[in-house]
Amino acid sequence: MFKRPFIVLLSLVLSGCANLSLSNMFNTYSDQYQQTRIALNSNNLEAAQLSINLNTPSDTNYQLDLVEKGKIAQLAQNYKQSLEYFNLAIEKQKSEQLKAQIQISKSGEQIGALLSNDNALAYNLPLHEQVLVHTYQAINYLSDKNNEAAMVEIRQAHIVQSQLLQQQNLDLSARALSDEQNFGVDWHSVNQAYPKMDNVIGSKLNGVQNGFMLVLSALMYESAGQIDDALIDLKAALVLYPNNPYLRTEVERLSARQTGGKASYNSNTHGRLVILYEQDLITPKDELMLRLPIYTSSGDMRFYSVALPTYQYITPTRPLSVQFKDKMLQGSEIAKFNAQAAANLKDNISLLITRQLGRLIAKEQVRRTMAKEGGDVGNVIAALYNLASERADTRSWLSLPNNAQIVSSIEPIGTANLALLIDGHQHPVSIEIKPNSTLLLLVKSNGQMVQNNIYYL
């Protein structure tokens, strides 16, 4: 009795979700990533790498899988493999941008999303994640002692960063447009019920710029003799974190160098030690079930439940302590990686809700058809499918750190030992300060993993 409507529903869903696995349809990405997160916290990088299945380029999560595998390969210090994954992600992003420009139809994806959830849409890296792809690719090249290629990546990161700054006005226009197409929803009620996420984002600029990229860029620009560019980036980072003592000192030092003033130290007898510290893992998105009041064409108000992504908590920053000679240095924050992710979500939430409302209408039409042609059984099948497939799109780059910190000091040339104090444990590091150079110590810690790499700039 219900064979025909059931087949119609199934064929429509499968035709639009050909590249969407059942796990993606009925489970959130944040839930699926738990196995990878456990492996990363246990410092089992091989298991973390194997937990991410890299499918074909047509898979909806292909770009996301590439950057996850690229970052995990970098954590495993397999820089060649990381470089290859990031290059594939960059090429895929360029390909998607070209498709958008020539307006290749994605009607199959749209149908799949309309009858399932937003996970049926291909995940294209948002601009703030594209900035970080180029930033971490620069680190891969630094590890290969290819500073010229690293500088190319930093310049690419700045190009994407400029696009992100320009996008803000476009996002405002998009939200205004979606508000007009409100399907009878009470947007005031939505704004009251949906979390503000202001505690995650912080200042507006924190939602647009990443201080980790700016500081790394400044270090590389200075090493290349581009003092003006280095100072611009340091000043931008200082605007994000005006109370950061290291950034303030660096801005003062470079400003004096730019104007030909007296150098703050003799580079023949002293060198600069800069520690950039990546701590923990970024907080994943949560799934929030929200009951929305929607008015029908006859003016009746009905409540519908929709699944939306959100950020409900963040992991607090724990300052790094560095014992060096007779002094103790404290890390000072330069980036919260969740800030940009939450800001991007906030910019797009009206569009997400608009798509959800369109999905509610489509699913309700299918349910009515199945109830009409299949009776109670058809109605139950449609209702169960609608309930099971109502999952929020919680996809984002989850192998990123939670925060980044900086420690900076001027030290006499020669060998020395320092101790990183991380979560109550000491991690000794031997370094050599060289004349006329900056020693960059890049430290990463997460759970049981603590690693460090030394670069000379």
From TrEMBL:
Keyword Lipoprotein in record: yes
Signal in keyword set: yes
InterPro entries per the UniProt record, alphabetical: TPR-like_helical_dom_sf
Keywords per UniProt: Lipoprotein, Signal
Cleavable signal peptide: 1-20
Protein's name in the database: Putative lipoprotein
The species this protein was found in: Pseudoalteromonas tunicata D2
